[in-house]
Amino acid sequence: MPRKEKHSEETKAKISLALSKKVEFNCDMCGKLSSDKPSSYNRKKRHFCSMGCYSEFRKTKLPLKEQHAYKGVREDNDSKQIYHKRYCKNNPDVIAHLKARRYAKEKNAEGSHTLIEWDRLKDSCGNVCVFCGSDEKLTKDHIIPLSKGGTDYIENIQPLCKSCNSRKHNKIYIHQNPELLKGEK
Q: In this structure, are residues 157 and 140 in contact, taking their beta carbons and an 8 Å threshold?
């Protein structure tokens, strides 16, 4: 175990002096005179007298490109709503997956699956509906419906076209070709 050495009186005095120094500045939001330690002051781009001023600055004056939600995607005149609308239009599979997860949580279903697992399942079934063989847009169908206590694990999901999924409704029914679900043909 390392031995802890005590600081000399000279070192203690230097530390005390360094900690007592303050840098005075005007708050970037309200202009109020405030102070901070030199090490903390030098680390920051902008300086505020309180968290309230910092919060208000972020809401009202922070440039769009410096905001956390920007991520290099939003244009200068885009509102969050316009950005979200464009994102939903360009990423329908992600939005559908998030809606399905929300629905499963509402039904208190056990388990979950990822978008990658769903894509693998569709690929293993040849990207066709396992009931009718249609290559229309596939939807997630819970073999044992969530309303009847089914899980949201990928093992309880099969890819069906929208019409077959609607026709099945909430019946417990696996497709007629279970070898498709395993990736065998």
A: yes
Joined together, the tokens standing for residue 121 give: 């399942």
pLDDT digits (tens, 9 = 90+) for 126-162: 999 988 888 898 999 998 898 888 899 999 899 999 9
- pTM reported for the whole predicted model: 0.55
Q: Are 162 and 129 in contact (CB under 8 A)?
A: no
87-100 per-position pLDDT tens digit? 899 999 899 899 98
- Please state the three-class secondary structure of the chain as a single string: CCCCCCCCHHHHHHHHHHHHCCEEEECCCCCCEEEECHHHHHHCCCCCCCHHHHHHHHHHCCCHHHCCCCCCCCCCCCCHHHHHHHHHHHCHHHHHHHHHHHHHHHCCCCCCCCHHHHHHHHHHCCCCCCCCCCCCCEEEEECCCHHHCCCCCHHHEEEEEHHHHHHHCCCCCCCCCHHHHCCCC
